[in-house]
Specification:
Layout: H1 3-30, E1 40-44, H2 50-60, H3 67-76, E2 85-89, H4 95-104, E3 110-113, H5 120-129, H6 142-148, E4 164-167, H7 173-193, H8 204-217, H9 224-236, H10 244-251, H11 261-265, H12 288-295, E5 304-307, E6 313-316, H13 319-331
Antiparallel strand pairs: 1-2, 3-4, 5-6
Length: 333
């Protein structure tokens, strides 16, 4: 065989190899990858290369082998764009679909929901129980936890916005608190900017305190601005707020579910039966509606309200009216 014939044969072999490789690449790109389990979850750590991810997925049984997937990513220019996070597959996918998912950062997310009117202590307990959160706050005091969340306002109570927060599995507990704190600061600033100008409140923090009381005292949402008006009217008089939720908050863990007459007379910084004005801190996390109600209350002359037993209240302008309402809705039940 002449040198020319040998070179021609070698070129044909290279062409055949290229065609075979191309055919394999096309077939690989569109093959269905069966899941090792359903759902199949895997985590891409920050800084991981596509080669590392491919090896991991091959070891897990998702990819038949790692090299071709890595080459596919290199050819398409996506090897440097994969995103860290936890991914979830609910059905078989093709390598191309998988690569696109990694490049988009289409990570799975879970959520945690905080209810309006809950306290900082309850939030911390809820965070500790969430199985998908990275726990970093164990062993820390409430003050240390607040500091870790970036709180510079003193007491953490009231400073976290109750909402549903989505996050990638493995996110830290403190990151959730940071997001909730930032959300509350913005919500409070917006509410304060939109406030009625004649409010007997000197600072946004006082509005936050009042909003927390409104949150705890409101049973029916339609009454929220009326409840707020009672406390605003009392602050203008001035009259003591005389609201049970502040007493309960001041009792702390001593509260057993019942509030008694002796509790109303036992002085604490939060007892609004024994002390004038607002308590020193919020007593819970108020939601957006209570922030609005505290800063934009209804214009009324109401100074009293009593529960009717169905979640709503009877509002009164005078003590005489209030006493009649107490007899009707409380004493004769």
């Amino acid at each position: 065989m002449t040198i020319r014939e040998r070179l021609s044969a070698f070129a044909l072999l290279l062409l055949a190899a290229a065609v075979a490789t191309g055919a394999w690449m096309v077939a690989f790109t569109n093959m269905s990858l069966d899941l090792p389990r359903t759902p199949f979850e895997f985590t891409v750590k920050s800084g991981s290369s596509l080669r590392t991810v491919a090896r991991t997925l091959s070891d897990e049984g998702l990819l038949p082998e790692a090299q071709t997937f890595w080459i596919l990513g290199r050819v398409l220019g996506k090897d440097a764009s994969i995103q860290a996070g936890t991914y979830k597959l609910d059905r078989p996918v093709t390598p191309m679909e998988l690569l696109e998912k990694l490049a988009r950062g289409d990570v799975s997310s879970v959520d945690i929901a905080f209810v309006e009117g809950t306290t900082f202590r309850q939030w911390v307990a809820q965070l500790k129980k969430h199985p998908k959160l990275k726990q970093t706050l164990a062993g820390k005091s409430l003050a240390e936890i607040a500091a870790a969340a970036g709180l510079a306002e003193g007491s953490p109570e009231g400073w976290f916005f109750p909402d549903t927060y989505k996050f990638a599995p493995g996110s830290s507990d403190v990151e959730i608190l940071k997001r909730a704190h930032a959300a509350m600061k913005k919500r409070l600033a917006d509410a304060w900017d939109a406030r009625h100008t004649d409010l007997p409140l000197a600072t946004p923090y006082e509005a936050l305190i009042l909003a927390s009381i409104v949150e705890k005292e409101t049973g029916a949402a339609v009454e929220r601005t009326l409840v707020a008006s009672v406390f605003v009217n009392r602050l203008r008089k001035p009259m003591r707020l005389q609201t049970d939720p502040t007493v309960i908050y001041g009792m702390g863990e001593a509260f057993d579910g019942n509030i008694r007459k002796k509790d109303l007379t036992a002085d604490t910084p939060w007892n609004t039966y024994t002390r004038d004005g607002l308590p020193p801190t919020p007593i819970a996390m108020p939601g957006a509606a209570s922030l609005r109600a505290a800063t934009q209350p209804e214009s009324t002359e109401f100074l009293y309200f009593v529960g009717k037993g169905d979640g709503t209240h009877q509002f009164s302008r005078t003590l005489e009216e209030h006493n009649r309402a107490v007899v009707r809705y409380q004493l004769k039940r």
